[in-house]
Specification:
alpha+beta, 4-stranded antiparallel sheet, 6 helices, binds zinc ion
């Protein structure tokens, strides 16, 4: 599942291939935009906002895409083979590069001035130039009964966290994932940890939250369920959080992140 760091890196790679170059091909393979044609227009800039990608095009248009669960953008030379099967959602190419959007969860073409329609609901972007920790804390605090685990995934509070950074942030903050937001003593610290983790990984292909790049030691808890906690040696737990069918994976250490009142 791509999180803010991957989307940020994807925006950089897309931008290097497309920004400032005139499109020689555009192929929307989604019904709503099947007849759209951006050929002859230059790509102005590519931007990430939380987990959303915005590709701004000459003439006041924005291509909005979202990777959702398994989407990706692949960069290749023009005319190179695209993946087999019905997985390509959008193809944008110039004379030098071809960007192929595979299994994208969302594809929209809209006026740039209406971008708020697709990203206006998002909280502060953890990797944005306008990152505002105070606003993130304010939004989190507005629903004190929500669990901190669910609140961190809600992109309306702060944008960019998925299940990996949720698990790692809560571990580092030593918080039981089901702690109500209102019972978290230091929300500023939680937000600061999440931002730092995304920031240090924003241009790295392999995530490291522990400072140790060795496989199996690069994260504290995520991907380590059933193994020994790197801090206390206890077995790492695995569960699900949230209401069905929205429940998502949560990994935590019962000893390092004890339930309040029992630890
Ligand atoms: Zn532990």
């Amino acid at each position: 599942m791509p999180e803010g760091d991957v989307v940020h890196l994807t925006a950089r790679r897309l931008g290097l291939a497309l920004d400032g170059r005139v499109l020689t091909r555009s192929d929307f393979r989604v019904p709503a935009y099947a007849t759209a044609d951006l050929t002859g227009r230059a790509v102005l800039e590519t931007h990430s906002r939380g987990k959303h990608l915005l590709t701004r095009i000459e003439g006041g248009l924005t291509v909005h895409t979202h990777l959702r669960m398994e989407g990706s953008w692949r960069i290749s030379r023009p005319g190179q083979g695209t993946p087999p099967g019905d997985v390509v959602r959008l193809l944008l190419a110039n004379e030098e590069w071809q960007a192929t959007g595979v299994r994208l969860g969302m594809v929209d073409l809209l006026p740039t001035r209406q971008e708020a329609r697709v990203v206006g609901h998002l909280g502060p972007d953890l990797l944005g130039a306008d990152w505002d920790p105070g606003e993130a804390v304010r939004r989190l605090s507005a629903a004190p009964e929500t669990t901190i685990g669910e609140a961190l995934l809600d992109q309306r509070n702060l944008a960019g966290i998925g299940t990996i950074y949720r698990a790692e942030t809560l571990f580092l903050a030593r918080l039981w994932p089901w702690t109500p937001v209102g019972a978290v003593d230091d929300l500023e610290k939680v937000v600061e940890i999440a931002q730092r983790l995304l920031h240090v990984n924003r241009e790295r292909p392999n995530r490291v939250t522990t400072g140790d790049t060795r496989p199996g030691r690069n994260t504290w808890v995520y991907g380590r369920a059933g193994r020994a906690c790197l801090r206390c040696g206890n077995r790492i737990s695995r569960g699900e959080m949230g209401q069905k069918p929205q429940e998502r994976l949560i990994i935590w250490c019962r000893r390092c992140q004890p339930e309040r009142g029992t630890g």
